[in-house]
Design brief:
5 helices; about 150 residues; about 60% helix; two-stranded antiparallel ribbon; mainly alpha
Length: about 150
Amino acid sequence: MGRVVPLENQKGNLNSEVIKRKELEQEAVFVGNEQLEVPPDWLVDTIAKNEWKRLVKEFNKKSMISNLDYNNLGAYCNAFARYTNIVKKLGTKVLAGREMNPLVMLELKYSDEMKRYGSLLGLTMEARLKAGSGLVTTTEQKIDNEFGDV
């Protein structure tokens, strides 16, 4: 699958049928997000809570995050906070003699966690629209199976 671009950023002549389908794809992944207004108390520190607030604010501009993402968002924010704290501790001192600083391994671990949870959350537009595209295709297939060529 090629790179997915949000409807408002697409160029070219799109007919009304294509526009309607793309709108459905974008709307298909939203189920509500009122539980995300307040960060959970189990976030590890202020960095994690601020990241939670920042992401929720951004998602609310064109929301594709929902209450179903609550735990993954929290895990992402905790990984982000831990990653940030480790990077601050490391500074520019990656090597201790000939051996790698053990904090580097933790830095890589939390970087990987952020990527994993970021992917689950759809932190890229491509991931969010890919999910929407799949849901709309499934819905269209169900309608076609039920009603055929009516």
